[in-house]
Amino acid sequence: MTDSENIIIAPVDGVLLSPIELSILKRLQKGKSDAEVCASLNLTKQKLTAHLKDARRKLNVRTRGHAIDRAVALGVMNAYVPTGSEIGQPNLKIGIVGCGRGGTAVLHILKDNPCIDIVFVADVDPEAFGVKSTTKLNIPFYTTLPILEPEDIDVVINVTGSEDMAAELHRVLPPDTELMGGLSAMLMWQITEERRRRLAERDRTLKEHESLCHLGEIIENIDSMADASYAVVEYASKLLNMPAGSLAICDDTGDEMILVAAKGFSEKFNADGKWKIRQGGLTDMLLNQTTPLFFADIADSPDPNPLLIAEGVKSVLAAPLIIQRSVVGILYLNDFKRKEIRTEDISLFSLLTIYAALTVARVKSIEKLWHQSQHDGLTGLLNHRSLMEQIEKEDQRAKRRHGACYSLIMIDIDNFKAYNDDFGHLEGNRVLKAVSRLLMKAARVSDTVSRFGGEEFSILVPEVCKDQVTPFVERLIAIIANYEFPNRRVTVSAGVASYPENGATVMELIKYADDKLYQAKREGKNRACA
Questions:
Q1: What's this model's pTM, rounded to 2 decimal places?
Q2: Which of 75, 77, 173, 244 could serve as 177's disulfide partner, Cβ 3.0–4.6 Å?
Q3: Are 300 and 332 in contact, with CB atoms under 8 Å apart?
Q4: Which domains does the chain show, CATH number per domain?
């Protein structure tokens, strides 16, 4: 390996390329074959493959073509334009007369064109505006016109605006040299400026699409709605250069919007995290169309949003997030000053909303599957597996703390089989749901209520010992016994176990609580045993 292969190019946006990797990409950019690249850099085919693999890894792309595009987008390499010699023609030799602001502007436009050589710049004033630029670019500068032979110059651009200078140039320039001045120079400047503008626009679009690809790579591995939504809002606000934004999803009823990510607002912004959909409001308008809406000043909208007005928002760009003709959410971008926006920005925003909609739909599906895996489908309580996970966590926590305790309550509906036989399983399911609601209502936020199986429930009560939990269990039994069920009175029996008093392991506690439950059954039901 040569010393040059160990040198690292300065990082650009976190990308580090060695000189050999950069040389390979530049040659491939010019259309060189692998064999030509290997010959010019004295590499074996295996070595070339290894360098390309490293470059693709650093640039986070899969193909060499994408590696070249990403390197150009990040500024590691320049966009490639064939030089005159490469297309079989010599470069055009140009001189500029006049080094004021106009001449300097022309100089900076032409200096990056690989088909042009600027052979001199002249101005009678040695302190002219653009003299420093010519020095930095190593272009010869003269205070008088240099003596030129026909082969030295092709075109001279006169930007002095002086008729005397134009006459002098006609007198001293070689006969075949083209002289541009006045309207011709202005036309050339406009054409070159338009080309520069288009190249800049192309580079900007490439960077925007690179950013979208990067966003896609990031959110592809996120399975949290909050994290994915914030990534979308963050990227959208940067791409569209707007300081604030938010993403809201539709709730299951379709009557409310739930805020899942926000950036750039005060702490008071939608503190409760959701809002009702007002008929005729901004949200209602967005939910009933398929394209983005933009208001340069929200005060001009038919029904200004009071929440945004309170935040001092002026401009709003928003769009519905649509999947299979269904709206799953809304993406908003906001500015606190009046802002005008380009058609290209609307198009970019529309493309970004597709990413956002796919992300919201994917994460909602993941969260729904996770919820189904953790909860009982009928009652909505945690299922047996989730309960066991919570008990294990609480058991480990209690064992790490001296003197800590926790309790486990096992609850079973009395005579439930007879209830199903008398009134049918649908009515039995209604009883299960009602008992679940009563248990959830009575339990603390820190307690874990679950359906253990069939008509049996359990409650994990952290940091509460048996003497404290028993009154709570008795109150639960009374609440259920006094509840008016549709068909007849329903009661439950319960067994209570506490760590460490009734067992040193989780399974010992479960067995103890279960034994006490069946003791309560034997003693007449509608009671608890501890």
A1: 0.49
A2: 173
A3: no
A4: 3-73 (1.10.10.10), 85-192 (3.40.50.720), 222-370 (3.30.450.40), 384-529 (3.30.70.270)
